[in-house]
Specification:
By secondary structure, the protein is α+β, with helices and mostly antiparallel strands. The protein is built from 16 helices and five strands. The protein has a five-stranded antiparallel beta sheet with strand order 2-1-5-4-3, sandwiched between helices. Helix 3 packs antiparallel against helix 4 and helix 13 crosses helix 15.
Length: about 300
């Protein structure tokens, strides 16, 4: 029977560093204590995946505060479960997200970073769930997404371009209202339950290291233009359609548009707004008529175009 790897053995070792001892991993005695703890709690097999994680996590700690931190962190995570791509975004209130790290070739970076920051992030479940206080967790995108996300236009018009089989994200509260999402992405297969559990085991390490390395991010957001006041997506919908000369939607219709763009079904939208699914469908027909469109795809296209016109 294959023994499940417990990556939590390093937590007592590096917790001292993350509490404020920057020379911890350079101290040979402390390194030996980590090895003693490792042997006592999980055995003496320091080879294979466990040995790779020990070495890689030590490298993460050594690179704190340097440009090498993010690549070292991703490399450490890959010793637990392989994945092709990774991107890390920081979110703060209504500001445009900051890309902290990615590994994409230029052609893919255009879609995954530049295009994303231009507007589609407003419909991203990771962004939407980062607006509330974040409890550190590892989550699959599909578990955050609304019921019709994969039939919605965010997925069909934007996310499908990413060519991903699955995306999972470490969601971390970086203090001062800033949230960080470290995404691991696969192009051909989803993460197995066993791989997901193994990555969950190192969540405390990932969260502590990310908070330490990226503290003070709120100051970087402060350099951006001030965000819009009020609910970000609802306000942008209103301004976007005003911008293209179609200031025709009622408040309720704008709410319906918001839920439709996020990927909610008529049933889920009705439940959220306290109206029947049939009423939601009537509103959608009126919206399409007023905007002279015939599909949700056209609605999404109008929204993205209008967003770019607001720049």
């Amino acid at each position: 029977m294959t023994r499940r790897i417990n990556h939590s053995f390093v937590f007592p070792c590096w917790s001292a560093l993350l509490a404020g001892y920057p020379v911890f991993w350079k101290n040979l005695t402390q390194r030996r204590l980590c090895c003693i703890y490792h042997k006592k709690h999980i055995g003496s097999t320091g080879s294979g995946m466990q040995g790779e994680w020990i070495t890689a996590s030590a490298r993460v700690v050594e690179t704190l505060g340097s440009p090498d931190f993010a690549p070292a962190l991703i490399a450490a995570l890959r010793t637990i479960a392989p994945f092709e791509h990774s991107v890390t975004f920081a979110y703060f209130k209504d500001f445009r997200p900051i890309a902290l790290h990615d590994e994409f070739p230029d052609w893919k970076r255009q879609v995954m970073v530049a295009d994303y920051q231009a507007g589609p992030y407003l419909l991203d479940p990771f962004y939407l769930h980062s607006l509330a206080p974040v409890t550190p967790r590892l989550v699959r995108l599909r578990d955050l997404a609304p019921d019709r996300f994969y039939q919605g236009e965010y997925f069909r018009n934007y996310y499908v371009q990413t060519e991903l089989a699955e995306e999972i994200g470490f969601m971390v509260d970086a203090k001062d209202g800033v949230s960080i999402v470290i995404s691991a992405m696969r192009a051909t297969r989803v993460f197995s339950a066993r791989e997901f559990r193994a990555l969950q085991d190192v969540l405390p390490f990932v969260a502590a290291a990310a908070r330490r390395n990226w503290e003070g991010l709120s100051h970087r957001f402060a350099e951006q233009q001030s965000p819009l006041q009020g609910p970000r997506l609802a306000d942008l919908i209103e301004r976007a359609f005003q911008n293209v000369g179609r200031n025709l939607l009622t408040l309720r219709e704008r709410e319906i548009v918001e839920f439709a763009l996020k990927g909610y079904s008529a049933e889920a939208t009705g439940q959220a707004l306290g109206i029947s699914p049939g009423t939601v469908r009537i509103h959608k027909r009126n919206i399409y008529s007023k905007l002279r469109i015939s599909s949700q795809g056209e609605l999404f296209s109008h929204f993205i175009k209008a967003l770019s016109d607001l720049e």
